[in-house]
Amino acid sequence: MWVGGVHSQVEMSESQSAVTNMASHLAHLMLIQERTKAGLKKADIVHQILQHTENRSSATRLLKDVIDEANRMLEDTIGYKIQEVPGKNVYFLVNTLDFEGVEDYLEADPDWEETRGLLCVVLSAILMANGEVQEDNLWDFLAQVNVARDDKNHLAFGDVEKLIKTTLVKYHYLEYVKDKHGPSVFRWGIRAEHEFNKMEMLNFVSSVYGEGRSARDFTEIFQALEEAEEANQTADSMNESSPTDS
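Structure (tokenized):
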């Protein structure tokens, strides 16, 4: 029994070591992929990280363990966590600390700051339209800030329509929803939900209006954001108080 116990402990140690090594590899891949903002597909993770796993039946559980460990590594070192796009089998990194500082670490595309500025404008327009903005209305709004839909060679953004409708959607900053029976609309994407604070953005918009206006002046939007924040805090509190699995 004692010999068997020692053998079992050795196997567990080797297994944990394997998970740690794979998690380190995954964290490295996620950081590389984050420079393109495209995310990493589950199939690619399985192929590149779990390709040498002999017991394929336990691959799902192993994948969870590897992602959990990679999450721990990333959060402890640079304040990033891995987020899955619901229903897409795609993973990307979400910044939990200072965005600027982490982007320096990731050696982000130097053009990204200008793109991010345009993204903030688009997200603001969506926010002020109560969560979704019709496509034609968005283009009309952008035209007012000299960003034209048909500009294929914008000095900062290149092909403007492709950037907004394809690239930023691919990066999960925006959702573009087509409707056969009505206008197409833009919504916040899951990455934007994690990387941008809606209340802070509302404060920014109110400051742009000037004349002493505050976020509270936009009553309907402000109340909706407050209610969403309270709901999130309640959910977090319930998760923290619920018993952990044994």
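The first helix runs from residue 2 to 34. The chain has a mean pLDDT of 80.
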